[in-house]
Amino acid sequence: MLASFFSGALQAFNCEFEKARSSLQRALDINIAAKSLWGSALLKAQLAYLCYFFSGEINAFAELSSEALKIAEESGDPQSKGVSYTIYGNACLQKGLLEDVVSHSLEGRKLCERIGHYLWAGSACAFLAQTYFEMKDYKKSREFYDQARQSWQQVSILPSWIRWANLGMVKCSVMLGEKDVNLDPLRAISEKNKIKVTEGQICNYLGEILLNLGGRHASEAQHWILKALEADERNSMRFFLGLDYALYASYFQRKGDRPKARENLGKSIDILRQCGADGWVEKYENQLTELL
Question: What is this structure's pTM?
Answer without folding.
Answer: 0.95
